[in-house]
Amino acid sequence: MKNQNFYMRVLCLVVIIGAVLFYNSRTQEKEYQTQNEELTKRVDALENQQQEILTALQENFDAQEKAKAESEKQKAEAAKSAENADSAENTDSAENTDSAENADSTENADNTETATSTDTADQVYKDGTYTGDGQGFGGNIQVQITIADDTLTDIQVVSAEKEDSAYLSQGKAVIDRILEAQSTDVDTVSGATFSSTGILMAVEDALGKAENQ
């Protein structure tokens, strides 16, 4: 009987210890689960906060880049407007100056042509200074030639208001060819074909006026 009571007490003690251990394990499991949930929430919150910071930084960077681009665009437009205004002013001034100079040159050329022309029967051309016109790249080109003893001694471009300055400058190389050959039967200038052709036509026109008929 005593042994039976002893075994019963031992069995009860084992059951109680088992219940306590089971309770503690369940409690610890819940605590671990709660801690994990809290950690997960904190991690999620940190990730969201980090994403918000990155988004704000990106938006700020985009805004700065946009403002910088707008500023550069405005500066470029302002510079372009100023450049166009200066170019228009310079063009008007140059056109007025060229027109006045060309008028004086034409008048002087006509006067010189009348004053210096001679009539020698045995010469192909009359001595003197003559003007001629030809069609260039942008418009009329007028030249002034000087003849002495049937020799073409000088050729000057006196008017080319609408001609492109770059093409005209390059096309003037044909003048040396004409003077060297003493003829307009020379090649035009590559890269300035129209301008050099206009000069050739103008020289031919002037030579026609200088012919001793």
Question: What can be said about this structure in brief?
Answer:
This protein is of the alpha+beta class. The protein contains four helices and three strands. Helix content is 70%, strand content 12%.
Notes on the structure:
The chain has 213 residues and is an alpha+beta fold. 70% of the residues lie in helices and 12% in strands. It contains four helices and three strands. Strands 1-2-3 form a three-stranded antiparallel beta sheet. The termini are far apart.
SSE inventory with pairings:
Layout: H1 2-116, E1 128-135, E2 140-148, E3 151-159, H2 165-171, H3 173-181, H4 193-210
Antiparallel strand pairs: 1-2, 2-3
Helix pairs in contact: 2-4
Mean pLDDT over the full residue set: 82
| CA-CA gap between termini | 169 Å
Strand order of the largest sheet: 1-2-3
Structural class, from helix and strand content? alpha+beta
SS element count, helices = 4
Q: What is the H/E string?
A: HEEEHHH
Biggest β-sheet strands, sense, barrel: 3 strands, antiparallel
User: Approximately how much beta-strand content do the residues carry?
Assistant: 5-15%
Quaternary class: single chain
Shape: rod-shaped
Number of strands: 3
The portion of residues assigned to helices is 55-70%
